[in-house]
Amino acid sequence: MSDLKVITGDFVNLQISTSKDDISFNEKRFPKDLTIADLKVKLELITGGNCNTMKLEAYTKENKFVCRLDDDKALLGSYPLDNGMRLHVIDQFQIRNELDFADVPKYELSQEEYNSKSDSVRAFLQKNKLGKYNEDNQKKKEMLEAEEKKLAENMSVGSRCKVSVQNAPDRLGTVMYTGPVEGLTGYWIGVKYDEPLGKNNGSCKGKQYFECPDKYGAFVKPHNVICGDFPELDYDLNEEI
């Protein structure tokens, strides 16, 4: 059996999130020929988790579950990951005692005591200027959100539009919603496509933002949407081929 080889791009850009509410990170670039075990080591330095106990999950840009990265010997490139997807790190993010008895009361630090500790995850992030403690990244994030908001506010509900997303064909549709979407970051454009090329019926996580048939709706980032005089496609079902 020949050795595995990465035949797609050599690197993939992934957003990083963790199961710890106050920890989130901007996009990171990883080589696809990295094993999952080595990836966990890198993520240990980034997130403060433990590479021996952490579990990894992948999600799309639309926050839909893709797969678990559960084979430490596999290459990162062997999983169906594309640029912009999110890698979610699940861990306790704390050093656990080897003698962890269930009947022993757990000691919880007050917020004041936690803030004063120099060996906490928060102290690690602050010291290394990671996540929300990186001022440059925070400023870039704020600028991006401001730009997204401006773009979204300039798009009117009912406008015809063209959606252009990387590695996907252009799709025509109608703007049905603009604004934030619960559970997702930033601003979004709700689009009803002319064809059943979407992912929903105008709802996200049980909340309805606009009405359309199933598989005709999608939520897209504003920079992927262009409004203009795009005539609705006319499908002649009686036309002979």
UniProtKB/TrEMBL annotation:
<dbReference type="GO" id="GO:0051010">
    <property type="term" value="F:microtubule plus-end binding"/>
</dbReference>
<dbReference type="GO" id="GO:0035371">
    <property type="term" value="C:microtubule plus-end"/>
</dbReference>
<keyword id="KW-0963">Cytoplasm</keyword>
<dbReference type="InterPro" id="IPR036859">
    <property type="entry name" value="CAP-Gly_dom_sf"/>
</dbReference>
<dbReference type="InterPro" id="IPR045172">
    <property type="entry name" value="TBCB_Ubl"/>
</dbReference>
<dbReference type="GO" id="GO:0007021">
    <property type="term" value="P:tubulin complex assembly"/>
</dbReference>
<dbReference type="GO" id="GO:0005829">
    <property type="term" value="C:cytosol"/>
</dbReference>
<dbReference type="GO" id="GO:0043014">
    <property type="term" value="F:alpha-tubulin binding"/>
</dbReference>
<dbReference type="GO" id="GO:0031122">
    <property type="term" value="P:cytoplasmic microtubule organization"/>
</dbReference>
<feature type="domain" description="CAP-Gly">
    <location>
        <begin position="179"/>
        <end position="221"/>
    </location>
</feature>
<dbReference type="InterPro" id="IPR000626">
    <property type="entry name" value="Ubiquitin-like_dom"/>
</dbReference>
<dbReference type="Pfam" id="PF14560">
    <property type="entry name" value="Ubiquitin_2"/>
</dbReference>
<keyword id="KW-0143">Chaperone</keyword>
<dbReference type="InterPro" id="IPR029071">
    <property type="entry name" value="Ubiquitin-like_domsf"/>
</dbReference>
<dbReference type="GO" id="GO:0007023">
    <property type="term" value="P:post-chaperonin tubulin folding pathway"/>
</dbReference>
<comment type="similarity">
    <text>Belongs to the TBCB family.</text>
</comment>
<dbReference type="Pfam" id="PF01302">
    <property type="entry name" value="CAP_GLY"/>
</dbReference>
<protein>
    <recommendedName>
        <fullName>CAP-Gly domain-containing protein</fullName>
    </recommendedName>
</protein>
<dbReference type="InterPro" id="IPR000938">
    <property type="entry name" value="CAP-Gly_domain"/>
</dbReference>
<dbReference type="GO" id="GO:0005634">
    <property type="term" value="C:nucleus"/>
</dbReference>
<dbReference type="GO" id="GO:0005938">
    <property type="term" value="C:cell cortex"/>
</dbReference>
